[in-house]
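Appendix B. Chain record.
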Amino acid sequence: MYSTSLKKYLYLSIAAAIVTITLKFGAYLATGSMGLYSDALESLVNLFAAIVALIMFTVSQKPADKGHVYGHGKAEYFSSAIEGALILVAAFSIIYSAIQRIITPHPIEKISIGIIISFIATLVNFIVGRILIYNGKKNKSMVLEADGKHLMTDVWTSIGVIAGIFVVKVTGLVIFDPVIAIAVAINIIYTGYKLVSRSASELMDASIPVEDLNKITLYLDSLKEKDISYHSLRTREAGRRKFISMHLLVPGEWTVKEGHDHADMVEESIEDMFEEPVTVTTHLEPVEDPASMKDIGIDRKKTDAG
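Structure tokens predicted for this chain:
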């Protein structure tokens, strides 16, 4: 159900890309504007990125199997990284084309028509971009959020292009057309960089957000009243799913069943804190045994040696 409900937004993104490509290339053909050409080129990238996002999202929703026992959630990060890279490619392509137009100026025709068509395309991208970002954050989907941010960079690109064309219309200085295109391209380079760096961080098993971690530690600290403490708390994310592991220190006099029942309680309580899927793994240790404190690090051997 989750997969089906979110896929509709990716199909919406693909449809929006097709509409805006048609409009923007039409505006370019009507005006000959370098800015509009660059804007249309970015929308073409949007279409490819949306298709990649749909593929990666579909892969991420596949259930765990023998070869991927932790699931396929990280596929979403590849989508975000690819989108960020495509944004960078589009930005540098815009800069290159704009420099060529500075060297060889070209008059812009039918400016009013170009502005109107570009404004309509921009409005489409803005509406769809906000929808994707909202639902991406709501459902903890990096694919949707990244795709939405990609569309919003396109919105800013279009606004800059429209502004440049309007200045050309008012002043008659065609140099503003490629200059504005370069300025906007520099701005979207930053967005592409953020998407790529975020994906790289998540692929390297970054911890869950601080606010989520604080909720968990606050709960675990409250367990001291039940003679339960903890250490070696580790977290990571893979798409929507959070993975949380810890060592629970319990009285050594407890029976195996008693300790197991309390561990189940802890795991279920943490899982209930979040709407998205959570996998909690606990390891029971006797609190009186000094050896329990020797496996806090991720590498037991190195910790013991230390």
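Further analysis of this model is presented in Appendix C.
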